[in-house]
Task: inverse folding
């Protein structure tokens, strides 16, 4: 499973992008569960969010959903933070 | 009905409400007028009694005239994301050990000061809205935002950004999103979104200039000058003087802001490039302020403030709608003088045409 996260906006307006390929990872099951929960709570269009809030695109195996600060689910927040930290 | 002045107070207490309702609907204004006024007075008296009973005498007094003092509360999210978090500093209390809390508190005060003293505006909503801010949001969070009711500050990750309370113009920027929300309410997307962002940069910078007592020539016209972590190649996040030159760094990339319409960026990301294209109206303000000289919050700031709060700027205004209103405002307030010329020249320099057209 390929999980991609793109973060846009924010006070600085600086974009960040990272992805994780779970193939062969010992914690792949955990990633899959997290990714599925994050995707199911996402929206099909970009929410406007709040001024200066981050907007996010989460793409899992080609399917993209959108969400925005501060209204993220715990799973979305966890997934975004892990992908941006551990991903390439 | 020349005796209405003496008649109404009696009317107020002894006439049963259903008779007042009937009179209020009467086609003769001599009868409906006093009845309507009585109903309004009566409703107001009831509201005042309720406010005094439920919120205390201080609240009832506050209804009559918003205070010239801010009402600040700072909360600590404790590196979590629940808002507002734990209350850590209230209005009038002494500074504590936490520098983020103290910086947020004084930044809110500086913002309140500029709006009150330069523009006679009482707080964000013009009616004494309490100012709330949360610090230490999330872990290493590289952002600050206005959530519609309060400000939220992250600590920064220490690699790219330091604490977002570090720059007073960042605090002013966030609170100005609140002012915009309560006034022109510019849609946060595309050109109106870039105008919304620009309002926050303009007044954020003015709040810093006012606090430091700097003239337009002395100001650095930078946004977030104290926000970049050591090691990042750049001077700030944005430059109103020279958009596109604030940073050029291995990790951050290069400042993408255009200064003129030639460089306008079309994109769906960042709410349609709101933090990118704001460089254009930002630079226009800089040009007006430096052409006029002296304190930028006075004439240049007054024109921009009048347009933002005057009620004619539409929620979906484009750059040229805004520009047109700055021209008419400059003429109304200052006549055919330096101010009008400075405004016309600034928009010409950034490539925004001034052509009267129907308002949105």
Result:
């Amino acid at each position: 499973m390929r999980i991609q996260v793109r973060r846009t906006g924010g006070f600085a307006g600086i974009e960040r992008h990272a992805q994780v390929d779970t193939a062969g990872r010992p914690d792949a099951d955990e990633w899959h569960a997290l990714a599925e929960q994050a995707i199911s709570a996402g929206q099909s269009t970009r929410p406007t969010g709040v001024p200066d809030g981050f907007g996010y695109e989460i793409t899992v195996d080609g399917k993209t959903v959108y969400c925005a600060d501060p209204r993220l689910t715990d799973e979305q927040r966890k997934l975004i933070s892990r992908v941006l930290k551990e991903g390439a | 009905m020349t005796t209405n002045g003496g008649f109404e107070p009696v009317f107020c207490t002894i006439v049963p409400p259903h008779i007042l309702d009937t009179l209020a609907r009467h086609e003769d204004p001599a009868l409906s007028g006093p009845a309507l006024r009585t109903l309004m007075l009566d409703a107001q008296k009831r509201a005042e009694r309720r406010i005094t009973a439920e919120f205390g005498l201080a609240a009832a007094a506050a209804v009559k005239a918003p205070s010239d003092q801010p009402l600040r509360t700072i909360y600590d999210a404790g590196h979590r994301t629940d808002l507002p978090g734990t209350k850590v500093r209230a209005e009038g209390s002494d500074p504590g050990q936490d520098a983020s809390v103290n910086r947020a508190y004084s930044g809110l005060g500086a913002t309140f000061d500029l709006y009150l003293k330069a523009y006679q505006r009482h707080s964000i909503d013009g009616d004494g809205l309490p100012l709330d801010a949360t610090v230490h949001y999330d872990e290493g969070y590289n952002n600050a935002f206005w959530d519609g009711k309060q400000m939220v500050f992250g600590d920064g990750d220490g690699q790219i950004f330091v604490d977002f309370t570090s720059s007073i113009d960042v605090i002013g920027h966030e609170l100005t999103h609140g002012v915009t929300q309560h006034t022109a309410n510019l849609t946060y997307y595309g050109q109106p979104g870039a105008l919304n962002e620009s309002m926050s940069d303009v007044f954020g910078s003015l709040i810093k200039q006012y606090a430091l007592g700097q003239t337009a020539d002395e100001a650095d016209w930078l946004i977030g000058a104290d926000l970049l972590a050591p090691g990042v190649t750049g001077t700030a996040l944005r430059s109103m003087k020279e958009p596109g030159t604030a940073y050029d760094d291995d990790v951050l990339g290069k400042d993408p802001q255009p200064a003129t319409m030639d460089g306008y960026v079309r994109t769906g990301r960042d709410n349609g490039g709101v933090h990118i294209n704001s460089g254009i109206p930002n630079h226009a303000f800089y040009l007006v302020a430096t052409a006029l000289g002296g304190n930028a919050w006075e004439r240049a700031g007054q024109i921009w403030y009048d347009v933002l709060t005057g009620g004619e700027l539409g929620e979906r205004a484009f750059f040229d709608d805004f520009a047109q209103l700055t021209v008419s405002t400059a003429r109304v307030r200052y006549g055919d003088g330096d101010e009008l010329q400075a405004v016309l020249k600034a928009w010409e320099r950034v490539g925004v045409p001034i052509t009267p057209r129907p308002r949105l």
Q: What stands out?
A: Chain A has a mean pLDDT of 94. The first strand of chain A starts at residue 2 and ends at 9.
